[in-house]
Amino acid sequence: MGKFKSGFVTIIGRPNVGKSTLMNHLIGQKIAITSSKAQTTRNRIQTVYTSEEGQIVFLDTPGINRAKNKLGEYMLNAAENTLNEVDVILWLVEPTTFIGAGERYIIEKLKGVSTPVILVVNKTDTVEEAEIFKAIDTYKEVYGFKEIVPVSALKSRNMDELLKTIFDYLEEGPQYYDGDTITDQPERAIVAEMIREKALRCLDKEVPHGIAVVVEQMKDRKGGNIVDIDAMIICERESHKGIIIGKQGAMLKKIGIQARKDMERLLDAKVNLKLWVKVKKDWRDSEFLLKNYGYHENGS
């Protein structure tokens, strides 16, 4: 057996390119939340992959998009700081020859970092092989990637090759986490993200990204395998509050039922979940409220 390698890897890419799906398939568990909306991944959820060869700690950065408000600026800073801290950057793109403004913005940011970048062409299951080669050629011209790996995160294609390539760029190092650790995010933070994910999915386009979730209480019940969780969904407007609660509380109930299923799998216990909805106007532009809801300058 070779030397044990370890290091930190971040996955970047435009929203909806499949970052969370890739992460979940590499780790084999659902940790990063997935939704078709931009900016669903807020915190740098660290997931951990451990094998005989070594350990990869994934930092899932918020998306690199131009900032529109304080929350946007915070997320952009968190993402850009990460690029210089990690050992390898995986840039996830779709198999297309069109390089849009979002990609060009990322290319500009990458030119300022010395970290090795591996281009991961995702969604290869959606196009003919010839299209994949064309996409690879197009991207080769715009940046000096160390490696280019085509994959399908959804179909788990070429995952082994991707892991092997990542390990090629990691040094010999310690095991940072126990072998059975999948994430270092406190359970409370993951539970909050699960509720946020379900809310975004159930509400579709009716309520934009102006929701946060605060888990106010999470405790094991004495003498039984039950966890009591009280959580608050924060939104920006009274009209949003009505939509989130729904007719006779139907929407809030739906969000709660779906989130509870995920939580029970995560915690391996029965979950008694109570949800409330509260309006805090313009929380995304308030430094104090951002910190209060767990968004810190260092991106954690």
Written description of the protein model:
By secondary structure, the protein is an alpha/beta fold. The protein has two domains: 5-168, Rossmann fold (3-Layer(aba) Sandwich), CATH 3.40.50; 187-292, K homology (KH) domain (GMP Synthetase, Chain A, domain 3, 2-Layer Sandwich), CATH 3.30.300.20. The protein is 35% helix and 22% strand. It contains nine helices and nine strands. Helix 6 (187-203) packs antiparallel against helix 8 (250-267). The two termini are 35 Å apart. Residues 32-43 have low confidence and may be disordered.
Features of the shown structure:
300 residues, alpha/beta, Rossmann fold, GMP Synthetase, Chain A, domain 3, 2 domains, 3-stranded mixed sheet, 9 helices, 9 strands, 22% strand, globular
State the gist of this model:
The chain is α/β, with parallel strands linked by helices and 300 residues long. The chain has helices at residues 19-27, 70-85, 101-110, 129-140, 159-168, 187-203, 238-245, 250-267, 287-292, and strands at 5-12, 45-50, 54-60, 88-93, 117-121, 147-150, 211-220, 226-235, 270-279. It has 9 helices and 9 strands.
